[in-house]
């Protein structure tokens, strides 16, 4: 039973990396945000706008818990805030292997500016300031991950997962 959780800031590349690893190792890929959207039949931005962040975070924790119970083996891209709210990082670490994808802030900024679907950044006056505040607020939760990666994400995540599953890529 191997469950791997990619955690990190919004736009850190968790989903893209998770899909790559999934294809490479034939490991089920789950994007938690996609699961929330499918369950509620709403886009994340609409959930935030219509129901609020508190409702979203409750649903996020509930769906995370259900997925953990349902599947024995997967790689999951969590939402950027998932580990920080409702003690989710403890649940993640108790049931699987957490990997913090610590992407450079300039790369985060570039990706966020290309994608206006992230509700947490709507109407922000200074993206630099928002990213700094968010990182400082969440780093304690992110730092509870079993692994903390700053570069060469694909190779290192493959190596970590292979060490737990003994799969050949």
Would you mind describing this structure in some detail?
This protein has 169 residues and is α/β, with parallel strands linked by helices. The chain has one domain (3-158): 3-Layer(aba) Sandwich (Rossmann fold), CATH 3.40.50. The chain is 56% helix and 12% strand. The chain contains 8 helices and 5 strands, in the order E-H-E-H-H-H-E-H-E-H-H-E-H. The chain has helices at 14-25, 32-40, 44-51, 53-70, 88-95, 105-114, 127-142, 153-165; strands spanning 3-7, 29-31, 74-77, 97-101, 147-149. Strands 2-3-1-4-5 form a 5-stranded parallel sheet, sandwiched between helices. The radius of gyration is 15 Å and the shape is globular.
Question: Which tags fit this structure?
Answer:
single chain; 169 residues; alpha/beta; Rossmann fold; 5-stranded parallel beta sheet; 56% helix
Distance between the termini: 19 Å
* Percentage of residues assigned to helices: 55-70%
CATH fold node name:
Rossmann fold
Query: Which secondary-structure class do the elements indicate?
Result: alpha/beta
Tally of contiguous helical segments: 8
Compute the number of strand runs. Answer: 5
- Compressed to H and E, one letter per element, the order equals EHEHHHEHEHHEH
> Main β-sheet: number of strands, strand sense, barrel status?
5 strands, parallel
Inertia-based shape:
globular
Instruction: Report the portion of residues in β strands.
Output: 5-15%
CATH superfamily: P-loop containing nucleotide triphosphate hydrolases
What is the CA-based Rg, rounded? 15 Å
Our count of domains comes out at 1
> What is the CATH C-level name?
Alpha Beta
Spatial strand sequence of the major β-sheet: 2-3-1-4-5
At CATH's second level, what is the architecture?
Answer: 3-Layer(aba) Sandwich
